[in-house]
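Take a specimen:
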Amino acid sequence: MSTLFTIMNPAAGGGRARECFGDARERIERAGIDLEVHETEGPGHAREIAREARQSGVSRFLAVGGDGTSFEVVDGIFGTGPGEPGDLSDDRPTPTLAMLPLGTGNSFLRDFDIDTTDLAIEAIARGRERSCDVIRVKHRDGVIHYINLLSIGFTADAGGLMNRRFKALGPAGYVLATVVCTARLKHPVFPMRLDGGDLDDRPAVLLSFSNSKFTGGTMMMAPAADVGDGELDVIRVGDLSRVGLLRTFPKIFTGKHVGEPGVEATRAKRVELEGLGELECMVDGEVIPLTLEALEVVPGALKVIA
């Protein structure tokens, strides 16, 4: 019987993870997979559990919760020191991550056409693995790692508002927060260089650095993204008016916002950000204050079961 080191966030999805995990666990174990379960006790705990497990030699993980739980697990697996993505001195097996989507948005697995718990359990039972890039983010105070997306500007503001006021509404909360934030629309400058190119210091409503397609549940932020292509999809929404943003926003659910006036999609292996102060950053569904310096793709650092 194979074993998955399982990190379960009982608070995910407003408590949905706690309610649904027992049945899901039984079904997974009937498929011949043993789950060594560790429950989290609060924010950041999943990261600590994953880091300690990886340091002790664990290579196969299951994250139970939403995108935020998976983010903490990934960041813990690839914490500083041995085992960081791209560390050639680390001869341990490439870590593998399965996910049971019992959170609020559950965006990442949608890239693999997994949008229900049943489909996720079927994928875990099959055990097929896909190579997945990991994004290493350097900020003033250290390094973090993610697999979904990091965004700044409008989406981070909306994500923060959703987490504070509308989280109980699930994916609809993202939509409501977006409408509220449109009323106080800003056009800041986030100076950046893609792969060492020219400095881009044009005003922007938002920047998204996407490894996968979806965010906020069903919003297809980066419709051409591929988690294993070795590149970030950089989505830039420029100096749109409120009317322009409201006209463009609904198209994000089909990915047709890309190519609309003011919306650009490019790709890069490395992004450098210059002169930024501390910003709210939305990282895989979690809003974190960071002073960003650079983002870099580490190709194929993770295997995902999907």
